[in-house]
Structures are given as structure tokens and as C-alpha cells.
Amino acid sequence: MGTFSDEELGMNLRITRRDFLNGAALAIGTSLLPRSMMFGSADGSEPQNHPGYSPPKSTGLRGSHPGAFEVAHSLRDGTFWSQAGKAADTGEHYDLVVVGGGISGLSAAYFFRQAAGSQAKLLVLENHDDFGGHAKRNEFNVGGRTLLGFGGTFAIESTEPYTPAGKALIKDLGIEVSRFAQLHDTRLYSSLGLQPAIFFNKENFGADRLVKNPFSLWGDSDASPAARANLWKHFNADAPLNDKPKADLKRLYSLSDDLLPGLTDTEKKTRLAKMSYADYLTSLVKADPQVIEVLRPIIHAWYGVGIEAVPAQDAWGIGLPGFDGLELAPSPGPGMGRDAIRWNQEAKDYFFHFPDGNASVARLLVRNLIPAAIPGNTADDVVTAQVDYSKLDQTNSHVRIRLNSTAVRVRHLGEVSTAKEVEVSYVEQGKLCTVRAAHCVLACWNSMIPYLSTELPDKQAQAMASAEKVPLVYTNVVIRNWESWVKLAVDSIYAPAGYFSYYSLDMPVSIGKYQCTKRPDEPIVIHMQRVPCAPGLPARVQHRTGRANLYATTFEVFERNIRELLLRSLGAGGFDAARDIAAITVNRWPHGYAYHYNSLYDSFWMDGGPLPCVIARQPHGRVAIANADSDAFAYTHVAIEQAHRAIDDLGIQVRAA
Ligand SMILES: Cc1cc2nc3c(=O)[nH]c(=O)nc-3n(C[C@H](O)[C@H](O)[C@H](O)COP(=O)(O)OP(=O)(O)OC[C@H]3O[C@@H](n4cnc5c(N)ncnc54)[C@H](O)[C@@H]3O)c2cc1C
Question: Residue of the nearest CA to atom 49 in ligand 1?
Fold first, then answer.
């Protein structure tokens, strides 16, 4: 850092909202936010009803944005109730209140209406300024052209097949997953000769160098053996690594030795479950330490930690190299994670990416629940449709979605076993309010729930509290053209020691009226991923450390790192950070993925003991639990399936729609 001046980086230009807001929010810390900070208005009306309200168009710090989390943190810190004042009873009664407007909460509302009928009255409370949770839309207007980016959930995809309920919902929303091949221009970048590359930085590898990537990051590869041999040749010539790690990397990617001879399939898998992939590479493959450094963040996108905290058995399941000679049967061993991406063709084929990721799924759910809020009637036209946020919370609507509203308490009115109603308290614009409902679904994060409900049995509350969240950052940067990428012949960059470990040109997908960028002289979205972790610590501790790091990082720090990394890796192609960057949206997710159980650290997962997520998701009186934490697996289909199960748990009597 510090190699370039502010002028060279473009830090002096005012392209985005820098973090005045972030600094102010952090300074306030755990106190109740003043109304103005909660996007409040002088007349007290809901911000979402104001003309021009459109969160996807906001740039700067998004994801967990300032104003979304302060009330929850104050509840966590025990400072909330002493300042809360008297609650205002809204007088509203619902059949169902859902806490959390992510895919799980919206799906819960959808399934409830399916069961209880379209006359059922529903309220969804969401603490962010937009619905969708992790399924977040970023929208940009550059030179009169609208560009979309995914600020969170990338795609309908999983390592497991969608369940019947999930598939039925996707179909009912009008999404034809099998159409994706027609919408995705798979040849665009390869027809221009673009390929994946690795960026080695000077601080860690001795020189800033962009080198064509000879190994496929995630197992699959289209390159012919001859093309791959050529890539290795160039890699050997260009990569700023010593000869031994270069040779070890090449050996690893073609290794056919059985490094655990004499053991049965189960014995091998058990051994692998108890050692990290980094240990496997060091102690069994005998790879040079630089190989570990090159591969450390290779599965950040799955685990949110480096390979030193990922079990070797899981690395084998995902398709990382070095295991062929073990000839393991393609079935999970004890304590194996669920991310065995290689084996399930049905899951692999069920893939669909909207230009704004699964935000389009959230928007289709909202259109299903409140048709007046989003014009159109197909999964194509939803991509360019503008949401009328003022229609989300109308008095005369059967379904209402109240944004900028943090639930702070859920309690039965009377004995849990006999109560007819629950009361839900929430804070909107600094004001404590209550509503009542016959049922409540908590589709928010498990770790939040013990703060909302003090009625849960201790064992369940402890199981809830043990749920971890994986912090990560998805950043969208709009550049005015991508000629530098073409000049350097790259379409994606893996940066093993970079502030962002992976970044790429947008996936070229055109749907309905939305046409992806096809010409290098046109603006395009670059997607950049950062996983803040602390190598050497257990996975959960790394996640907590990373979360604190994300809350403490200002937009300016993100921006400076973005500009510098792009300039250093693409400058040789003519990239100019001051001239070429048109907009930046940093989606930070301190509470990102649901934590996947890990055989290195979670003995219950290894032993087949009772899973905390199963203990946590038990219904309690009129309250049921949804959200992806309920199955400890960070996928959209899990959020949907857990919503389906939660509505079932409520034992709703089915009425005719
Ligand atoms: C960056 C990222 C990328 C991902 N990519 C993919 C992908 O490509 N494919 C895939 O299948 N899955 C992906 N996932 C996982 C997937 O997005 C999630 O599993 C799923 O969207 C979770 O939905 P949810 O409704 O359970 O939780 P969330 O989306 O987190 O929604 C819960 C909502 O509840 C709100 N909330 C919490 N507490 C309160 C409260 N007290 N009051 C009111 N509201 C509250 C939260 O703010 C949040 O908006 C990704 C996740 C992340 C973070």
C-alpha cells in the first residue's frame, strides 16, 4: 500500500458516497440511533414511502449498511431497553408476522399464504432498507446505461438438488432454470482470447506479476491437455515463485500416488476429516510452504476461511487436487461437509444466474405477495422492473413489508401453551412499536433470536447462540470500458495475497430487456470478493475476528484497496484507476453465510451427535423458526426449505385460496 498518490488512484474524485455515514454510525455505537440516522423523516412517515426511494441505486457501503444494525447491537449489548421508552401499540393484528425479509422470510410468507389463503394478513419486518436479505441488488447508471450487479447471493445453485418445495416455488415464480444456457453468452470472453489469471503481489511474492492461471480453481476445466501444458510452461517462466513451489504445484495437479496406503476407504476419509487441507499438502504431499500461500484462499468462496482451516476430506469433495491416487469412493466419509460439488449432476444442472443474482428471486417473491409493488408478470421483465417501494406497506394490503424495522422482542401474550397471540415489538426510525399476530416466524439469524425471545428453553437458546455467521464482502465496481482486460487477455483474477482474493468481469447474461455488456469499449461491472479471516485460529474465531474487522473498516479503506489492486494488476494493460472507475458499491456482510459444520472443530459433526441447528429450529408455541441457519448450510434452497418446514411446524389449517 501507499505506492500510488491519491490523484493516481482517483481518491480525490467524488464518484461515490464515502463513509461520513459509516464513521458517524460507528461513533454512536450502541445507543439508539437518532431518527435522521435511521433514514427518518421529519413527518415520521415511513422512508420507503418517500418519492424516489430506491435502495438498489445507492452506492458506497451497502450490504449491512449504516442504520441497519445499530438497534440489534444495542439489544445484544444490553443497552437497548433502558433507552427504549414506552412502546406505541400500532393496533395492528396479523395472522402471521415474519421477522426477516430475506429469501427465507419472503418464502415463509409465500408458503403461509398458500396454506392459509390469500385473505390471510401478513407483516414482514426487515431491518435493512431493502428486502431480500443476502439476495441484494446493486443498480448503476453509467453514461445513460443501466448496469446490474449482485451484491450478495449469486445464483440459484447448490451442491445438493433443490427439494420438491423449492423447485415448485422456483417454477411458480416463472423461473425456467433450464433456459439459462440460452441466456448466458459462454463464448463472449473466450472468443476475445480472455482467460483466468493469477496476480502475485510484491509484498508476499517479491514482484507484482499477472500470470495466466495454469490450474483450474475449482476442479472443472475446458482447456485441452496441450493448452494446459502451454499454460504451465508460461507459468514456470513468469510466476515470481521459487523453482521448488512451481514444481510442487505442477506435481500436485497431476498427483496419482496413494498417500495413505494400507487404509480402507473409511479409514482414509476419517484421517482426511481430521487434518486440514494445508496439513495434507505439507505433511503428505510434501509441498513447499509457498504452495500453501498460493492456494490458501482458493476456497474462500465456500468456507470463508483459508485451506488451513478446511478439512482435507472436504477439499477432496469439492475437487481440489492431490487426492486422485487415494481412489476414494464418491460418497461422504464421517463428518464430511455437504459441499461435494463433483458428484451431483442434478444439482449441477440446476443453475440460474440473474444479472442481480437471487435479488430477482426476492423481487419475484415480493411481486407474488404484493403485485402492485412491482410491474410485469414474467421472470424476464422483473430484471428491469422498478419496485414501487411505497406499495410495500399499505394499510389496505393483505401483505405488508416494513423496511428499516428491527424486531427487538417476540413474546406470547399469556402462557406459551395456551396463548392465542404473540406480540412483536420493533424499532422503526428510533420509535418502539408493537403489533400482534396469531403466529410468528423468525426468519432472521439464529444468533439474534435469544435476544428477541427470552421464552425459549435454555438448551434451544444455547443452540441458537452457537450459530456462527461467515463474514465476507462482495464489491461491484463499474469501469467505463474493459479494454485493459482484453489487452492483457484476462477475464478473471485470483489474487492469493490480495485484499480481494478474486475478481472478474461480470457473467455475461442477457434477460428480457436487459442486455449484458458485449463490447470492450462499453462500461461493465467487475465483481470482487474479499473474505476477512485470521489464518491460524479456529474457523469460528476467524469468523468473529473477520466480522469485527468488517464493522471497523471504512468505505475509504475499501475504496483505496480496490483502486490500488486494480491498478497494480491491470495497469500494464492501460487501466487507469482515476479515469476508468465510474462507481463502487461495497456490500459488506459481517453476518454472511450460515456456518457449515467443520470436522476439524465441531466434534458433534464428526460423531454424528445432535446438531445445534436441529435443536435450535424447534417450534415454540406460536413461534416457528426459519432461515438458512436452521440447517447450517448457506444456500438459497435451504432458506426456502426451512421456511416451508417452519410453516408446517405452525400447523396452519389449509384454507382455500
Ligand atoms: C455474499 C453471499 C453470497 C451468497 N451466494 C449464494 C449463491 O450464489 N447461491 C446460494 O444458493 N446461496 C448463496 N448464499 C447464501 C444465501 O444467500 C443464503 O443462504 C440465503 O439467502 C439466506 O436467506 P435467509 O432469509 O435465511 O437469510 P438472510 O438473507 O440473511 O435474511 C435474513 C434477514 O433477516 C434480517 N434480520 C435479522 N434480524 C432481524 C431483526 N431483529 N428484525 C428484522 N430483520 C432482521 C436480516 O437483516 C436479513 O435481511 C450467499 C450468501 C452470501 C452472504
Answer: 133
Nearest CA to ligand 1 atom 45: 100
62, 59, 54, 22: which is closest to 587 by C-alpha?
Answer: 62
Res 221: pLDDT: 61
Residue to substitute in 153, 432, 595, 641 for testing ligand 1 pocket (most ligand atoms within 8 angstroms of CB): 153
The reply to whether ligand 1 has any atom less than 6 angstroms from the CB of 125 is yes
- Residues 212-216: contacts with CB under 8 Å, at least 24 apart: 212/238, 212/489, 212/490, 213/494, 214/250, 214/253, 215/249, 215/253, 215/321
Task: Return d(Cα 352, Cα 156) in angstroms, integer.
Answer: 5
Which cell goes with 455? 421464552
Residue 544 pairs in a beta bridge with none
- Helix (H) or strand (E) run with residue 75 in it: helix 70-76
**Which pLDDT belongs to residue 143?**
87
Q: How far apart are CA 13 and CA 92, in angstroms?
A: 48
For the chain, list residues with pLDDT below 50: 17-40, 654-657
pLDDT per residue over 595-642, tens digit each? 999 999 999 999 888 999 999 999 999 999 999 999 999 999 999 999
- Which residue blocks in 135-288 are alpha helix, DSSP H? 164-172, 180-183, 188-191, 202-205, 225-238, 243-252, 265-273, 277-279
Cell numbers that stand for 656 in this block = 382455500
Res 44: pLDDT: 66
Gap between the Cα atoms of 538 and 156, Å rounded: 30
Q: Please state, in angstroms and rounded to a whole number, the distance separating the CA atoms of residues 229 and 174.
A: 44
User: Which protein residue's CA is at the shortest distance from atom 33 of ligand 1?
Assistant: 100
Check if 407 has its Cβ closer than 6 Å to any atom of ligand 1.
Answer: yes
Beta carbons within 8 Å of 166's beta carbon, 6+ residues apart = 637, 640, 641, 644
For 596-609, write each residue's pLDDT tens digit.
999 999 999 998 88
627 CA to middle of ligand 1, Å? Answer: 8
Q: What is the pLDDT of residue 423?
A: 98
Q: How many CA atoms lie within 13 A of 253 on its CB side?
A: 21
pLDDT of residue 40: 47
Residue-level length of the chain: 657
Q: Is 103 in the pocket of ligand 1 (CB under 6 A)?
A: yes
User: How close is the Cα of 432 to the center of ligand 1, in Å?
Assistant: 25
